[in-house]
Amino acid sequence: MWRRMMATPIAVASEANTLSPGSPVALFSSRLVTGGNTGIGGYASKAEYAVTRDGRFLMNVTPEESAAVSPITIIQNWTTLLKK
């Protein structure tokens, strides 16, 4: 399911000690991960995205249904192979 990443401008009035949110704006569409372990808070919580200082996004997304699944090879104790 495609979802939209939104942004809302926030105006800060330091003299009144208040925050005033503006109107939300759609940034882009994405397939953000949903389901267990993606909620906010709690032991099993996982972040769906992170934003860098320069405004780029790193996102945890679900693969396309038609995407081919590539295998992952894990080599344990690989440092012992260096001695041979």
Commentary on this structure:
By secondary structure, the protein is mainly β. Helices cover 5% and strands 30% of the residues. It has one domain. The protein has one helix at residues 79-82; strands spanning 3-7, 10-13, 18-21, 25-30, 49-51, 57-59. The radius of gyration is 20 Å and the shape is elongated.
What are its keywords?
mainly beta; two-stranded antiparallel ribbon; 1 helix
Q: State the helical fraction.
A: under 10%
For the sheet with most strands, the description reads: 2 strands, antiparallel
* Residue-averaged pLDDT: 77
By secondary-structure content and strand pairing, the structural class works out as mainly beta
**Rg (C-alpha, Å):** 20 Å
Sequence of strands across the biggest β-sheet? 1-4
Following the backbone from N to C, one meets helices and strands in this order, namely EEEEEEH
Low-pLDDT sequence parts: none
Number of domains: 1
DSSP, total strands: 6
User: What's the N-to-C terminus distance?
Assistant: 49 Å
**Which strand-content bin applies to the residues?**
25-35%
Our count of helices gives 1
* Approximate shape: elongated
Layout of secondary structure:
Blueprint: E1 3-7, E2 10-13, E3 18-21, E4 25-30, E5 49-51, E6 57-59, H1 79-82
Antiparallel strand pairs: 1-4, 2-3, 5-6
